[in-house]
Amino acid sequence: MVHRSMPCLPRKSFWATISNSTALVVRVSGPTATVHVDGRDVEASLPPRILGGPIVAGDRVELTGDGDSVRIREILPRTTLLSRGDFGARNRARPLVANADLLIVIAAVVDPPFQPRFLDRYLAAGELGGLECAIAFTKNDLPHDIAQIANAVEMYEQIGYPVRAGSTFDPRFVEALRGLIDGRIAVLAGHSGVGKSSLTSSLTGVERTVGTVSKVGAGRHTTTDPRMIPLPDGGAVVDTAGVRTFYLPPMEVGELVHGFPEIAAMATKCRFRGCRHVGEMGCAVDGAVRPERLESYRRLLEIV
Ligand SMILES: Nc1nc2c(ncn2[C@@H]2O[C@H](COP(=O)(O)OP(=O)(O)O)[C@@H](O)[C@H]2O)c(=O)[nH]1
Ligand SMILES: [Mg+2]
Ligand SMILES: [Zn+2]
Q1: Which atom number of ligand 1 is nearest to the Cα of residue 211?
Q2: Cys bridge to 144: 91, 95, 98, 109, which one at CB 3.0-4.6 A?
């Protein structure tokens, strides 16, 4: 169950004090987290180790302590969890955002160039984390390969993903995304420079640092923390940092197919035991899904 009205909680102030209250984690930064509780934001310290941790934006937590020193005591069960593989240590999962309803993968039609393999990785991460997924193409005001994007839009819509395309500076596009989010908690993810922060600002009215295409060693501390920002009419968006290489969290080889719903659907019809569904003769998946998607799946199979 997801609290749709978060983070505009509470409807009524039913927490007399901060002690032993449930709070929503808005952002985690170093040893503290900003938590939303009783209608305001409070800094709470993180315990060095916590069951189910690390704590991430979107987590619902139990607090302990008084107004001066609030500490997170417990993480409440999560409904969804968007994770990626850790840099350098791909055998570790790095949770990014908890309890979000929707992942909107943002891809620019150009600048940075559209990379379908990369988009598919994000979609797979969303699917595996239990989030609904959608796609938003930005920068269609710039000259680009219209046929390539039209082909991608058609393909992803056929799979069942809602797709929107437009310019971040076009209010109709922003409203289309607002309609897609529909009062829920949405994560915006994708390559650096595609327009996540610009969109977050337009959607929420909260200014985000725009144009910080990550440079080595520069500005990595504040801008890389996912932050949940409430939408004026309910729901929230979480602006995540673009990463140069997005790895999936570690998983069993057999799990990966669930990151590709249309491949998973055909795979259930495959009669070969232990089939990898990557072009084996007679495999039910072969020829039944788009080759581009099978290619993304096949490449990921090699590295999970
Ligand atoms: N032409 C054009 N530029 C955009 C669009 N969306 C974002 N930008 C620009 O792209 C750059 C990166 O945007 P930003 O929001 O920081 O991307 P982020 O790294 O994904 O957060 C900025 O210079 C934005 O002004 C768009 O739809 N069209
Ligand atoms: Mg940004
Ligand atoms: Zn098969």
Answers
A1: 16
A2: 109
